[in-house]
Each structure stands twice: as structure tokens, then as C-alpha cells.
Amino acid sequence: MRAVWCEPAFTEDDEGKQVTIIGESVKVDNETRRVEWTDSSPPEGVLNATITSVWEWGNAGDVPPHIVLDNDRCVSIPPIAGSGKTIDLAFAEIMSSPAEGGGDARINTKFFTPVVDRGSEVTTQLMDARQVEFGQKKFSHFL
Predict the structure, then answer these.
(1) How many CB atoms lie within 10 A of CB 110?
(2) What pTM value is reported for the model?
(3) Where are the domains of the chain?
(4) How far apart are CA 39 and CA 85, in angstroms?
(5) Are 56 and 8 in contact, with CB atoms under 8 Å apart?
(6) Where are the beta strands (DSSP E) in 15-106?
């Protein structure tokens, strides 16, 4: 299994700032950021809106990262263009089995990546891939 980590176009530092989205260009206050809309097309009609909250992975359970605007509109958080880094994941946890009798065939899973804890003793641990950060890069999506 592989996953992609990207620098998100919006972070909690952007709460309370003005945002305008036009195509692949996102302007937060006076800073323009080039983005890639990987899962959707660019939203329309976002002009000088205020970002009231930023929801990253883990803030809202399994809800994909998004921002909430002052008109209660939700917009997905795209990655900064060209910031993607692909990582191989080697560990999975199966959390439930498919329903019997032809019901829902989905299986709840979690994927983990090894991380190093450099506390008093260096140890390797497994962490939910959606919670792992590489510098400014945060989990974006599975491949």
C-alpha cells in the first residue's frame, strides 16, 4: 500500500484570514498559493470569504481535511502544487469483517507507517498513517 503526503494549502494558522479561490490559485490574505485539486474541481464563488475553522485528519474522525468558511460552506483542503511525497506503508489493521449474507462488503482498516521516537531511548513505533507528518507535509491520500 502506498500513500501520499503533501503540504496542505490551509493550516490552522489560516483561521480568521480572508481566502479567494480561483482555479489552481488560492489567495490567503495577501499570499498566493498554487494548488492541485486532486479529488475535485476547484470550488467556485469563493471570493474574500473568511476561514472560520480548519479541519485536518484526526480533528473530525475520518472526515477528509477541509476548511469552513464564514457562510458555513465547506471546502476540501488541496495540497500545495508539487509538494507530494509518496511513502510505502507496510502494516494494516483489520478492524471489522464484511457483513454476512451479502450485505456491505467493506472492511474497516487502518494503515500504519513506522516512526522513530527519539525520547530518552530511541524506539521504532507504528503510527496511523493519517497522523504522521514529514516536516510541513501531511497525509493527503492513498494510491
Answers:
(1) 14
(2) 0.68
(3) 2-76, 85-142
(4) 17
(5) yes
(6) 18-22, 25-28, 31-34, 46-55, 66-69, 74-76, 85-88, 91-94
Distance from C-alpha of 20 to C-alpha of 28, rounded to nearest angstrom: 7
Note the pLDDT of residue 62: 65
Spans in the chain with pLDDT lower than 50: none
Confidence at residue 110, expressed as pLDDT on a 0 to 100 scale: 79
- Euclidean distance between CA atoms 141 and 2, whole angstroms: 9
Q: What is the pLDDT of residues 59-81, one digit of tens each?
A: 555 677 899 999 999 999 999 99
Question: What residues contact residue 40 under an 8 Å CB cut-off, 6+ apart?
Answer: 76
Of 12, 6, 7, 73, residue with least CA distance to 44: 73
- Cα 71 → chain centroid: 22
- In this prediction, residue 131 carries a pLDDT of 82
